[in-house]
Amino acid sequence: MAVRKAGKLPPPVEAVDYALEYGSGMLELQRGSGRVLLIDDVVATGGTMDAAARLARAAGYEVGGFAALIDLRLAGEFKRGEMTLRAVIRYD
User: Fold this and answer.
1) What is the CATH number of the domain that holds 78?
2) Rounded CA gap, 43 and 49, in Å?
3) Is the pLDDT at 21 greater than 80, yes or no?
4) CA distance 85 to 71
5) CA–CA separation, 55 and 14 (whole Å)
6) Phi, psi (5° rounding) for residue 58?
7) Is 27 exposed, middle or buried (0-12, 13-18, 19+ CB in 10 A)?
């Protein structure tokens, strides 16, 4: 499954708006089922990761975890429920 910016996936899709540091955005995902690991290259504030988790649940998926190559920790530790973000590189 791929979470993409609005207009990049063929319909039908689920969509969610989310706040960015400099404005707002929209993510889309095709409906499905199963357990997913959400992975991003860089997590700054966690806003996109949080929106992707909300979107995945709305589209029928169960979120099993969060991972990133780089965690900048600009808003502290990313945590959703009991799950924390696993990262290869973490800046404190």
Assistant:
1) 3.40.50.2020
2) 7
3) no
4) 8
5) 7
6) -65, -30
7) buried
- Using CA atoms, how far apart are residues 80 and 21, in angstroms rounded to an integer? 19
Length of the chain in terms of residues written: 92
pLDDT of residue 61: 97
Secondary structure (3-state) at 44? coil
Query: pTM for this one?
Result: 0.90
Domain span at residue 19 reads 4-90
Query: How far is 18 from 5, CA to CA, in rounded Å?
Result: 11
- What is the per-residue pLDDT across 33-89, written as a single tens digit (0 to 9) for each? 999 999 999 999 999 999 999 999 999 999 999 999 999 999 899 999 999 999 999
User: β-strands 23-29, 4-5: how paired?
Assistant: antiparallel
